[in-house]
Design goal:
By secondary structure, the chain is an alpha/beta fold. It is 42% helix and 19% strand. Among the domains are: 93 residues, no CATH class; 121 residues, no CATH class; 189 residues, 3-Layer(aba) Sandwich (Alkaline Phosphatase, subunit A), CATH 3.40.720; 95 residues, Immunoglobulin-like.
Length: 741
């Protein structure tokens, strides 16, 4: 507010004259200079020689300008600029504290009782603030001089830099206020030392169940600030190495300490067999998961752990059919697969955490698996010919992402990442058995029941059944040059390939795979495809840490082959109720056998990531249909009306004629912003400015080949990035006819 008061006094003089002299005997000229607006020419004079030079410069160069002269010299001691005081105007501050006291009384009718140095600090602090700042100082005293909740954070973050940008009078008052805030007598300390003690007080208070509100308020702003987050984690790292937590579960749920979270996880892991203990800790964990730091800790791990701890298994008792089991898994149970995957990913190698959580997960799954296998006789495969059926029913351009090992729970994470940006028809299907690539990819691509081991032959079979233009491509390779077809089939083998090679070590890549899927879905929807379907050949199970006792041993007779999750046999076997038999021919093998549950058969090789069995995680596959969110307003259709002239252009120049559809009742005064992308062999080398087309308007844009004899031009919506139309432009170089014509 001081800045406003001072500038009002200056403006009152300069409204009538071109020069004003400001006299401040207490020599706060730097403060006065700081608050003066740039529109005024400012001179600072400290003695008679400077007065003479100032007067000469004003008279010669600035007679018509608005000029402010600042000086600490009393009025009666001025020489060469004394006449400006008399003929133009003079603002006499003399002592800054007296000037402020009078201004506060004039504006608020209140007396301010602050020491001289505190008033000077208040002048600096009031810049940019309103009358309420001074009102608070008058009524509440120097406690309102600084707003600790906000002023202290820049100081903690960079104490030396903060002090370098403040005047000594402000720093002195600020440090006094900090010491009072800390509840102690003022101590003369270097800025860095004081900042360290302040940070330790704030953060250390969170190691208590009920920190003082003033510390929690500052901490909350610290956590929310992107500008100061680096210093928060640096102080946390130093503090947690020095302080011992006395009462582990007494730490405040908003704490920022990674070490406390890890101790909480370890403690929960060791008490998972004690329901009463876990129930008592749930409120603290729930509170933790809702805090800013707790919700993001280790990729949202607290939410995952709570999904395990809070699962309501009472509904499992009501399952009386396989349909009930399918509904329960796809609506309520699948998140615990995501949860255990997150725990394995974060703590793999730490058996003290992995083993208890693995046992707890298996215990949660056990009653459901009992119901699953109790009703398994009614299991019906509906994966056969899935791609052909969906493609033939599509009304427009369709892209299908065919994953190898995209489990149902992973598809739900992809849906969550896309949020409300797309419409989702979230379905599932039951895949074939055994749930392995050769069998199930054949079912997806073919509708004749033949198992085809060569992927390219599966693709050729599908192509032969369709009357639409089709392209097959790896999902990672998709570019703008691949979109000019009615059907795009995108294969995605990353999960299966990585997981079979790396087993549990592959878990750290699945989050990236989810991001890739979400990104490609959005890309396809924005570039001309009316729908994108995501499905998979099979899912997978994570078997965790296995001992030999955890593996299933079989004593079969005759000729048989044993995989990790199934056994093929030539002859019918005499099996117990722990196994399921399915009559299915494969070569000269006639029978399939599966163990009930998620335990693998005892075979050579690695264990961890597996498929081929009958667990719901393997057999329930995603069948999710994504479509763009429709707009209530119909967009103008934009076309290229000279396409026929662009195949074989003679010369260096070519022209693109863009035409917007004619106006109608649905599109009053409509317009559309578009942009042209230029590609050579699928690689973008140029783009146009944004072009605005109004209804019925034709715009001709001319370009040069510039060394690109074959160009794909794609017109996209400038806002949504959706592909509107594409055309190929080719150049013909005219031969030199040697003057014959």
């Amino acid at each position: 507010m001081f800045d406003k008061w001072f500038n009002q006094d200056i403006d009152n003089v300069l409204a009538k004259r071109n020069q004003v002299v400001v006299i401040d005997e207490s020599a706060h000229l730097d403060l006065l200079q700081k608050v003066l607006p740039a529109k005024y020419k400012v001179f600072v004079v400290n003695n008679a020689i400077e007065e003479l030079e100032c007067k000469y410069t004003i008279e010669k160069h600035h007679r018509q300008d608005k000029v402010v002269v600042l000086t600490p010299t009393p009025k009666k001691q001025l020489t060469f600029i004394r006449d400006y005081c008399e003929t133009c105007g003079c603002v006499e501050i003399n002592k800054l504290e007296n000037y402020l006291t009078q201004k506060v009384f004039d504006k608020l009718g209140l007396n301010i009782n602050l020491a001289s140095e505190k008033l000077k600090a208040a002048a600096h602090q009031s810049i940019g603030k309103g009358l309420e700042y001074w009102d608070g100082l008058c009524r509440e005293g120097e406690g309102r001089l600084f707003n600790i909740n906000t002023d202290i954070l820049p100081f903690i973050h960079d104490p030396e830099g903060f002090c370098a940008n403040q005047k000594p009078v402000v720093i002195k008052a600020f440090f006094e206020r900090i010491n009072i805030w800390l509840g102690r007598d003022p101590i003369d300390q270097p800025p860095k030392t004081l900042a360290q003690e302040v940070a330790e007080k704030i953060l250390g208070s969170l190691l208590e169940s009920k920190p003082e509100k003033k510390y929690l308020d500052v901490y909350s702003k610290w956590v929310d600030s992107k500008s100061f987050e680096d210093s928060l984690y640096q102080y946390c790292k130093a503090l947690q190495a020095q302080h011992q937590v006395v009462e582990l579960w007494g730490v405040h749920p908003e704490h920022p300490f990674d070490s406390v979270d890890l101790r909480w996880v370890n403690d929960i892991a060791q008490h998972l067999t004690d329901p009463k203990y876990i129930k008592a800790k749930l409120p603290r964990l729930q509170a933790r998961s809702k805090t800013a730091i707790g919700s993001q800790w280790r990729k949202g791990l607290w939410r995952r752990i709570l999904q395990l701890l809070e699962l309501d298994t009472t509904k499992i008792k009501a399952i009386s059919s396989l349909d009930d089991a399918l509904i329960y898994y796809t609506s309520e149970l699948y998140p615990i697969d995501t949860a255990i995957r997150g725990i394995y990913e974060e703590f793999w190698g730490d058996d003290d955490i992995i083993r208890p959580f693995q046992a707890f997960y298996n215990e949660l799954m056990s009653p459901f698996l009992f119901k699953w296998f109790q009703n398994f006789d009614s299991y019906q495969v509906n994966q056969k010919g899935l791609l052909l059926d969906r493609i033939q029913s599509a009304q427009g351009k369709i892209a299908v992402i065919v994953g190898d090992g995209i489990a149902y729970e992973i598809s739900q994470r992809v849906i969550a990442k896309l949020g409300s940006s797309v419409k989702v028809d979230n379905q599932f299907r039951c895949c074939g058995m055994p749930s392995e690539t050769e069998n199930n990819m054949s079912l997806l691509y073919r509708n004749d029941g033949i198992i085809e081991s060569v992927h390219s032959k599966r693709e050729e079979f599908l192509r032969a059944q369709l009357s639409k233009s089709v392209r097959f491509i790896q999902l990672d390779d998709i570019g703008m040059q691949h979109l000019d077809v009615e059907v795009l089939i995108c294969s995605y083998k990353d999960i299966d390939d990585i997981a079979e090679k790396l087993q549990h070590q592959a878990l750290k890549f699945i989050g990236t795979i989810e991001d890739t899927l979400a990104e490609k879905i959005q890309f396809l929807l924005k570039n001309g495809f009316q729908e994108v379907v995501v499905t998979s050949d099979h899912g997978f199970v994570l078997t965790g840490i296995l001992t030999e006792a955890d593996k299933v041993e079989v004593q079969f007779t005759g000729e048989f082959i044993k995989a990790e999750r199934y056994v093929r046999a030539v002859e019918k076997q005499n099996i117990s109720s722990d196994f399921i038999e399915i009559k299915q021919s494969y070569g000269h093998y006639q029978y399939l056998y599966f163990a009930k549950g998620m335990k693998p058969f005892k075979t050579p090789g690695k264990y961890g990531y597996a498929h081929g069995g009958l667990a719901p995680q393997e057999l329930i596959i995603p069948f999710v249909i994504f479509t763009s969110q429709g707009s209530d307003v119909h967009d103008l259709t934009v076309s290229i009306v000279n396409q026929s002239q662009l195949n074989g252009v003679v010369g260096e120049n070519y022209s693109i004629h863009l035409k917007a559809e004619e106006n109608n009742a649905d599109l009053p005064d409509a317009e559309r912003k578009v942009q042209l992308l230029f590609l050579d062999k699928g690689k973008k080398f140029n783009k146009s400015d944004i072009v605005t087309l109004k209804a019925g308007e034709l715009i001709k844009k001319e370009y040069v080949f510039d060394g690109h004899p074959s160009i794909d031009v794609i017109v996209i919506d400038a806002l949504s990035k959706q592909t509107l139309v594409k055309v190929s432009v080719t150049q013909i170089v005219a031969r030199d006819l040697g003057g014959l014509l």
